[in-house]
Design a protein that fits this description.
The strands form two sheets. The protein has a seven-stranded mixed sheet, with helices on both faces. The protein has a two-stranded antiparallel sheet with strand order 1-2. It is an alpha/beta fold and 277 residues long. Helix 1 runs parallel beside helix 3. It binds S-adenosylmethionine (SAM).
Length: 277
């Protein structure tokens, strides 16, 4: 069977299953199985029997709404690739904008100190250390399985990775940090129905839910950031698109320059604030 025919069948299967980007996913899975770049799939040699069988298995799993990145084993994030799989949150494109903000802020200093709270796979920490010369990065993760993925992804990067609770972490760094960045859990408990199966059934619960209004973790992060930052230091925290007013409101009068920022789709996505001097 030609790649063209395989792709057409896979696209139809994934469309039927309600996958949001059926053609792209069909192509990325075939590229993964054959090792042929996505742009060359239609002109490369026809997949052999083994490749065809593996491909059909992966398309079947994707139709069951297993996340694409769990099937390929990796997720691209800015200029780095993270290993991902069961037990760790798959980094999202919208978080790349928050990471970009942290990178810009860190780049204003000669030897910046950055803390990534709730690091998951280590995506933000790895992007920061990759893009900011001279930076010192610390990261913390509470969940042991996610921590294992972060250990693999951050190995050799120089990031100081710790297993622990973001709310009590890094007491040795109090008042010394230039930038605190965090993509915490933020989905309200009653939003379960509206969450895609890939997220609901495959991202870890600790990565998703955060109390009735989804703001419990953001409240805790506000107080940790206040403790860690030096006067004039900045914090950036991701939130749900419905929290464009409620998340900034968590950063009350003691903070300066409280601002909300959109993601690439123009939806409210993260709040930033400066610790008053
Ligand atoms: C939404 S995920 C984000 C992961 C990663 N920062 C990213 O953007 O891909 C939130 C992460 O926070 C972790 N987490 C939840 N509560 C935590 C806490 N109190 N302390 C440290 N990590 C926590 C979860 O296990 C999960 O890995």
């Amino acid at each position: 069977m030609s790649a063209r025919a395989l792709l057409a069948d896979a696209e139809a299967t994934l469309t039927e299953a309600g996958v949001a980007s059926p053609r792209v996913d069909a192509e990325l899975l075939l590229a993964h199985v054959t090792g042929v770049p996505r742009s060359l799939l239609l002109v490369a040699a026809r997949p052999n029997d083994l490749q065809r069988r593996s491909y059909l298995e992966l398309v079947g799993a994707r139709a069951q709404r297993v996340p694409l990145q769990h099937l390929t084993g990796s997720a691209a994030f800015r200029f780095v690739d993270l290993e991902v799989g069961p037990g760790v949150f798959v980094p999202r494109p919208e978080t790349e904008v928050l990471a970009g903000w942290a990178i810009e802020q860190a780049s204003l200093h000669e030897t910046p100190r950055v803390v990534d709270l709730c690091t998951g796979s280590g995506a933000i920490a790895l992007a920061v250390v990759h893009e900011v010369p001279g930076v010192i990065v610390h990261a913390v993760e509470l969940d042991e399985v996610a921590f294992g993925w972060a250990q693999r992804n951050l190995s050799g990067s120089g990031v100081d990775l710790r297993l622990g609770d973001a709310t009590t972490a890094f007491s040795d760094l109090d008042g010394q940090v230039d930038v605190v960045v965090c993509n915490p859990p933020y989905i309200p408990l009653d939003a379960w129905e509206s969450v895609a199966p890939e997220v609901r059934d495959h991202d870890p619960e600790l990565a998703l839910w955060s109390g009735d209004d989804g703001l419990d973790a953001i409240r805790a992060i506000e107080s940790t950031a206040w403790r860690l930052l030096r006067p004039g230091g900045v914090v950036g925290v991701e939130h749900a698109d419905a929290q464009g007013e409620s998340a900034p409101a968590v950063f009350g009068q003691r903070w300066a320059d409280v601002r909300d920022h959109p993601d690439l789709a123009g939806r409210p996505r993260f709040v930033t604030a400066t610790k008053r001097r």
